[in-house]
Known about the structure:
The longest helix has 19 residues, at about 65-85. The chain has about 375 residues and is α/β, with parallel strands linked by helices. It folds into two domains: about 1-170 and about 355-370, 3-Layer(aba) Sandwich (Rossmann fold), CATH 3.40.50.2000; about 180-340, Glycogen Phosphorylase B (Rossmann fold, 3-Layer(aba) Sandwich), CATH 3.40.50.2000. It is built from 16 helices and 14 strands. The chain binds uridine-diphosphate-N-acetylglucosamine. Uridine-diphosphate-N-acetylglucosamine binds near residues 11, 40, 64, 236 and 291.
Amino acid sequence: MKILSIVGARPNFMKIAPLCDQFRTRGISHVLVHTGQHYDHKMSKLFFEELGIPRPDRDLGVGSGTQAEQTAEIMRRLEPVLLEERPDLMIVVGDVTSTMAATITAAKLGISVAHVESGLRSFDRTMPEEINRLLTDSIADWHFTTEESANENLRREGVDSERIFFVGNTMIDSLLKHVDRADASPILVTLGVTAKHYGVVTLHRPSNVDSAENLAAILSALHEIAREMPLVFPVHPRTRKRITEFGLDHLVREGSGSGIGSDSGIVITEPLGYLDFLKLTREAKVVFTDSGGIQEETTVLGVPCVTLRENTERPVTVTCGTNILVGMDPEKILSEGRKRINGHSCEGSVPPLWDGKAAERIVDVIERLV
Ligand code: UD1
């Protein structure tokens, strides 16, 4: 049996790592392909090192571009690799452009595709990821899901129940495996913050950061909160560009590396590696984010999460976890944020099967099917 897996962007890496471990320990032949959608050291290679992911066997080096350019380039460069490798199964994870482009390429060559983190739906087609999810799931052969809503979505869309496997969350496998190691990260000392006396911010969704009006509204609200408690903002490259382009630099300041005081505002840092970010999140009083994965990670860590989106494809983080959706409404960001920095507790519970064994279950199924 030969398995070929695809990764491309930062949120893919923690989802594939536990599967790589399983293939290695079970002696299953595995080819890892990196599309190169993310290429900065801090967005890619650092994660391979920290998560112990083997070096990709193939790097397609597609780089940045429009959605269509990236999709086309991934398909063009992946096709000959698939023809040469002829895997028995291709695995894709998550909802990034690489996930969708690789799925189309394999399906057209008659190669079976398994989608890990299948079935999530925000029902918001303005999100590029929602288009990626719909396209991937409509032609994938096997669907591995993380929560009950995904099972329901897939069944409603006509996917045969026998092709749906509710296995849990491989991103949480990675988190549980590394959380103790992350404890040794010096990031709090480096930034000069004290556990439970700061918040964390991440923002990169086009709807939030590509509109000057929305980004200004969000940063202004967060700036208010940062008068009461420092906010650390490891910034995605596209967001950094937009802050400058829209003239919003006065709302943030570059982290000098130490001495963040209680009135230091929003402090920007470079994107952080996996272990530093895990430590920073775990010790935070509150997290403000528009990321999908961070809604799940905070749920497992029991850290309050305020999501700056109108919807989520991960409803279990709201019904079961620590998450609340506030959209881009500055008033709501302020009031819900303030509640949390002032100790409003959001005790959640860990969703079913988010127990660190998802990759084991997936590879059990694969061994049975392929
Ligand atoms: C992608 C995913 C998103 C995921 C996010 C995590 C899609 C549609 N979106 O969004 O779901 O949450 O990754 O980060 O796949 N750039 C760099 N260096 C890099 C990578 C990107 O500078 O290593 C800059 C480039 O200017 C690039 C821009 O970021 O054009 C956007 O990168 P892209 O991969 O298109 O989308 P993300 O916003 O990162």
